[in-house]
Amino acid sequence: MKLLRDTWLLFVNNLTETLRNPVWVIIGLFQPICYLLLFGPLLEGVAGSGNFPPGGALTVFTPGMLIMLGMFGGAFVGFGLIADLRAGLVERLRVTPVSRLAPLLARSLRDVLILLAQAVIFIVAALPLGLKPSFWGIVLTLGLIVLLGLILSSCSYALALAFKSEDALAPMLNFFINPILLLSGILLPLTLAPDWLKTVANFNPFSHVVDAARAAFVGDFANSSIVWGFVITIVLAGLAMFWAARSFRQATT
Amino acid sequence: MSIIEIKGLTKSFKTRRGIVEAVRGVDLTVEKGEIFGFLGPNGAGKTTTLRMVTTLLEPTGGSATIVGYDLLREPRKVREKIGYVSQSGGVQQSATARENLVLQARLYGMDKPRAEKRTADLLKSLELETFADRKAITYSGGQRRRLDIALGMVHHPELLFLDEPTTGLDPQSRARMWDEVKKLRDEGTTIFITTHYLDEADALCDRLSIIDGGKIVAGGTPEDLKREIAGDIVTLGLDTRDGSSTKAQTLLGSQSFVKETEIHNDGLRLYVERGEEALPAILRVLDGAGLHLQTIALTRPSLDDVFLRKTGRTLREAES
Asked: Is the CB of residue B318 less than 8 Å from the CB of residue B308?
């Protein structure tokens, strides 16, 4: 099938491009690893309090960091697209008979694969610190990260195509991602939050994703938050990809 | 049938300040096997028109047939038949020329062996072989531009669009590029080229059109256009002090082939219909009157004169 063939060709090309400088993949891990080593220990003291979710500090903190990795890793892919727009690469593809959807799918596939690799490296790095996750919990969490990466990268691509400028994209991403990050309980679980903050966070879809990942990590598979986490991310990923696909189709430089 | 037939093509954009009509009804015909030049100041609708006929932008109105396919109904067929080299080129800088070309060939549906064969042929014919396996980011401007052209030619298109292919190149690379373009034309490719350089259009194009304010304001061969504008200019070197200039002016001004006369400090300037036919007649008239002619020169108006007359601006003014 033409779409699959085109997507595959472009995916291999994109991945080769990324892996020419694998150092960026490692640097992407730097932020969550910093938090794990330099912020994680602060949680030990709070973990004893009654409001802290079950599983101990590390088991609560690691899934949050994985979600953060997915959010940031996905959110910043738009910068690469802007560079390619400027180099005329996107336009060059649009004049070939390549399937209209293939360039987007190829990029997203590459982004997701890189994210998965980073997430696995991160989990392995956390093991010596005493992390004891449930195996199926990890699988489910990786699934959530893939969906999250798709949501954020698609939005990032759509915004990149709309603004076409790094100067506009950077503050734009910061504007959205900071409140989302703080209202999702990634750093400190929202069980510690006052009621008003809990209510506000409830409207942030990503807070449910973090809940889902935490429940999965401790092996609490009966927890309804896991189902909700997947429902929310699947719906949002569908919407975001639709938005990005439409932007790609209409893209003019 | 003509390879490009554009009828009443229009494009309007909605902006905050209202609707902007970038292209207001363009009619164009390009014949198979010619180099067709498309000129115009920035903002004249040149790029918008180019983007429409290369399927990058949907027209608001009008119709076009490109290489036998309807632009609006069969854009995919059009894409298979045309090559397009944008101003920025679209080379992947971190990849080599060979990698860039193989990927492009495969995107046009070739299998790997065929793509590699085609790449080798193109590298050879555009003389890219010596640095084919170096990253494109290390190439000079001229080398990069030749790779751009190779990318546009990968699938043997019958029609190649070149958007300002020599902008930013040094004179040597520019001359080289002209040779490449002519070679492609001689091999049977039709070339549609936009340029900022009127000498380039003059040297390269079989026919050209000038667009301004979203409309075609002039079209034809460079020769026709120049003739239509001003005719030719004959400059006579005469002694201005002894009155022979004024005498010659009266004598020649009454000739039917002279459109206008002008006294200059070094003699007399005549605007004539056809310079090569006017010269013998001028000489006869002056000889008959016993006027001593020191020098005589025939100059043709340049495309700059054409551009100035048709758009009211020189191209350089229009750029700034």
From this structure: no
Of B57, B90, B94, the CB nearest to A92: B90
Q: Are B298 and B232 in contact (CB under 8 A)?
A: yes
For testing contact with chain A, the best of B88, B111, B154, B162 (most A CBs within 10 A): B88
Measured in degrees and rounded to the nearest 5, phi and psi for residue B158 equal: -80, -20
Residues B10 and B179: beta-carbon distance below 8 Å: no
For the stretch B36-52, pLDDT in tens is 999 988 888 898 999 99
Mean pLDDT of chain A: 90
Report yes or no: A58 and A130 within 8 Å, Cβ to Cβ: yes
- Which residue of A5, A13, A96, A250 to mutate against B (max B Cβ within 10 Å)? A96
**Residue among B46, B43, B49, B77 at smallest CA distance from B61:** B49
CA distance B85 to B242: 60
Q: Which chain A residues contact residue B80 at CB under 8 A? A: 97
Which residue of B lies nearest to A103 if distances are taken between CA atoms?
B107
Is any Cβ of chain B less than 8 angstroms from the Cβ of A249? no
Say whether B107 and A6 touch across the interface (CB within 8 A). Answer: yes
Nearest to A101 by CA among A253, A251, A252: A251
C-alpha–C-alpha distance, residues A157 and A85, integer Å: 11
A95 neighbourhood in chain B, CB within 8 Å = 54-56, 79, 82-84
Kindly tell me if the per-residue pLDDT of B320 is higher than 50: no
pLDDT tens digits for range A184-195: 988 888 888 889
**Alpha carbon of B273 to those of A67, B236, B237, B270, B283: distances in Å?**
79, 16, 20, 10, 16
Furthest-apart CA atoms within chain A: distance in Å: 61
Chain B residues whose beta carbon lies within 8 Å of the beta carbon of residue A17: 92, 94-95
Say how far apart CA B165 and CA B319 lie, in whole Å. 17
How far apart are alpha carbons A242 and A236 in whole angstroms? Answer: 10
Over the stretch A69-103, which tens digit does the pLDDT of each residue have? 999 889 999 999 999 999 999 999 999 999 989 99
- The stretches of B189-268 forming alpha helices (DSSP H) are 198-204, 222-230, 244-253
Residues of A in contact with B106 (CB under 8 A): 9
Which residue has 């996750």 as its token pair? A133
Distances (CA, A) of B171 to B125, B143, B168, B200, B202: 21, 14, 9, 11, 16
* Interchain CB contact of A164 with B (< 8 Å): no
Q: What letter represents residue B22's amino acid? A: A
ipTM value greater than 0.85: yes
CB contact under 8 A, A97 and B86: no
Spatial distance between the Cα atoms of B91 and A93, rounded to a whole number of angstroms: 11
User: What's the pTM?
Assistant: 0.82
Distances (CA, A) of B3 to B82, B149, B176, B208: 10, 20, 26, 15
